[in-house]
Specification:
single chain; mainly beta; 6-stranded mixed β-barrel; 3-stranded antiparallel sheet; 3 helices; 17 strands; 34% strand; globular; disordered N terminus
């Protein structure tokens, strides 16, 4: 809410198209600089910093479908140098670069003199960067996981006072269909009934960084398959991350087969998508 984030909303509602890449990456645009340079980012609730690519793209790659775009601060009249080293690690690997300031436009909302990172080392992302369609990551997480305590994009958007409400909502497409991210509200065309609410809780005592919530249970065939009672909602991953013991229960319930008998093959599984499997029932705040 606006009160929880220490700001008053009262502006507009913006919609950003979110493109689906093989149901594994969901990408939307952000504009950086003046004039604006359009870049594709993962809008990621599992992190809280903005970085964009500044690695030159070889001329021949520019003609390939989905080639990475580059932010060039020399072409922006509102760029302000900083140069402090930036490093961040994700589940898929680390990236590194340096901080800069410029006008960042999210939807139609301009954030002037916003501190973000230009990344010149994406080797740690491996295949995700090589085949992915992203040019950066825009974190929508809370303050306490912001690297170097930089003001988060979410905090900056709310503090701008330009949102109709301190709310954002995702509608993600499947099979290549275009979805959307709504800033400042929700799109009533994409749901029926009423929302049920659950509080964001501390990830550790006194710290809010991830969109962490209390989870009642997860059941398959009516039986619990987890002892976890806390979870995070992460728009930056297409995976369900669970403890090893829980994974063993899920594997048994869906009759998945390991890729091989020895590590690491025995830690990866295949499942026949044409076969049947029990429902995966997640219960939060008493609702399944």
């Amino acid at each position: 809410t606006a009160a929880a984030l220490g700001a008053t909303a009262g502006g507009e509602k913006d919609t950003i198209a979110i493109n689906d890449y093989q149901d594994a990456q969901y990408i939307g645009e952000v504009s950086v600089g003046s004039p604006g340079q359009k870049l594709r980012v993962v809008y990621d609730t599992g992190s809280s910093n903005l970085w964009v690519n500044n690695q030159p793209v070889p001329w021949w790659r520019k003609w390939l479908p989905g080639a990475h775009q580059t932010y060039d601060h020399s072409k922006s009249s509102t760029y302000v140098g900083n140069g402090t080293t930036f490093k961040i690690a994700y589940g898929s690997g680390p990236v590194a670069g340096f901080y800069s300031k410029d006008t960042v436009t999210v939807g139609d909302i301009g954030l002037t003199d916003y501190l973000f990172a230009e990344v010149n080392n994406t080797k740690g992302l491996g295949t995700m960067w090589l085949v992915g369609k992203l040019d950066g990551i825009l974190g929508l997480g809370w303050d306490d996981i912001s690297v170097d305590h930089v003001q988060t994009p979410l905090r900056a958007l709310v503090n701008s006072g330009k949102l109709e409400k301190s709310v954002f909502a995702f509608y993600l497409g499947s099979g290549g269909a275009v979805g959307e991210l709504v800033l400042g509200g929700v799109n009533a065309d994409h749901y029926i009934g009423d929302f049920a609410y659950t509080p964001v809780i501390d990830m550790v005592p006194g710290k809010k960084g991830y969109w962490t919530l209390a989870m009642d249970d997860i059941k398959m065939n009516g039986a619990s398959i987890t002892s976890c009672r806390k979870a995070i909602v992460d728009s930056g991953t297409s995976l369900l991350a669970v403890p090893s013991d829980d994974m063993a229960k899920i594997v048994a319930a869906v009759s998945a087969k390991p890729l091989g008998p020895i590590p690491p093959l025995n830690k990866e599984y295949t499942f026949d998508c044409n076969s049947t499997a029990p429902d995966f029932d997640i219960t939060i705040a008493g609702k399944t």
